[in-house]
Design brief:
Length: about 290
């Protein structure tokens, strides 16, 4: 947390702290989708699937390339922890670290979700966010983060001195993925990865830099929507923390079901095709 210091500051400490930051990954040259053409497709969508994610549980569903997926708040404020996979190859999955580096700590309209190495390509594009009015609040909080890892039974066990809790999002995702794929639990668990925290309101404290959460501003009827750039397998847990206003590994928080819808457009943007895997030759200097 960098709150303790044992070292004497150098004479030029103030000048060193005053150095202006540089954005690590300028994205002016990053290929971006033609967002208006995506948005135009939303005017004529046909629903093809709908399902409910029960509180403190997870569910899986498939989103064909070129389809839209909506994650919807239904009965009350509820956070969802979302994993995304290549539907044909589980080794390719959402890479929140690079998604964060290229978009920022929280994602919204027009942002792309990227897959892991060695594939590194956009696998989904956000096309609607009914919470885009929230922006960043006075605490530095915002919604839909790609910084939290998911609540898990290992950290819970560590912090609670041995408690065994089985409905953390990590366990929920593991069970759901095992049920979908037929993999043993421990093999399925190896594929569960850091999440997009749908509807969760988070940030970092300004004094200690600690990851914080606060009550989600989501209301029934709000939804986050994305366009599948490749065939996707999605897996989402309705977090046991509910709106994550106080705790996130609990049977006492008010939790609600979440709805998922998959919609097919009448057509696709002219010239659109699923993006290819990353073009790096993987020689790593030893070709």
């Amino acid at each position: 947390m960098k709150t303790l210091s044992m070292c004497v500051p150098p004479a030029d400490a103030a000048a060193r702290k005053a150095v202006k930051p540089t954005i690590c990954y300028p994205t002016a040259t990053l290929p971006r989708p033609d967002l208006p053409s995506y948005l135009a497709l939303r005017e004529n969508l046909r629903p093809v699937e709908a399902l409910t994610v029960q509180p403190r549980e997870a569910a899986t569903w498939e989103i064909p390339a070129g389809h839209f997926c909506r994650i919807i708040c239904t009965q009350g404020p509820q956070v969802g922890d979302l994993n995304l996979f290549n539907a044909h190859q589980l080794d390719e999955r959402l890479y929140t670290g690079k998604t964060r580096a290229l978009n920022g700590t929280h994602v919204g309209l027009g942002d792309q979700l990227f897959s892991n190495f060695p594939y590194l390509r956009p696998i989904a594009t956000i096309t609607h966010d009914s919470l885009d009015w929230y922006g960043f609040d006075e605490f530095g909080g915002a919604v839909h983060d790609v910084i939290g890892t998911r609540c898990d039974p290992y950290t819970h066990n560590l912090l609670s001195h041995g408690d065994q809790y089985h409905h953390c999002c990590h366990s929920n995702l593991t069970r759901a993925l095992a049920d979908k794929t037929g993999l043993p639990l421990r093999q399925a668990e190896a594929h569960v990865h850091d999440v997009l925290n749908v509807f969760m309101c988070t940030g970092f404290t300004k004094d200690t830099g600690q990851y914080f959460m606060k009550a989600s501003p989501v209301r029934p009827g709000d939804y986050l929507e994305f366009f599948a750039e490749i065939d996707l397998l999605a897996c989402m847990s309705a977090c046991p923390g509910g709106d994550c206003s106080a705790e996130h590994s609990s049977d006492s928080a008010a939790c609600y079901p979440m709805k998922v819808e998959v919609h097919a457009p009448q057509s696709l943007p002219e010239g659109w095709a699923p993006p290819a895997w990353n073009g790096y030759d993987r020689s790593h200097g030893r070709g």
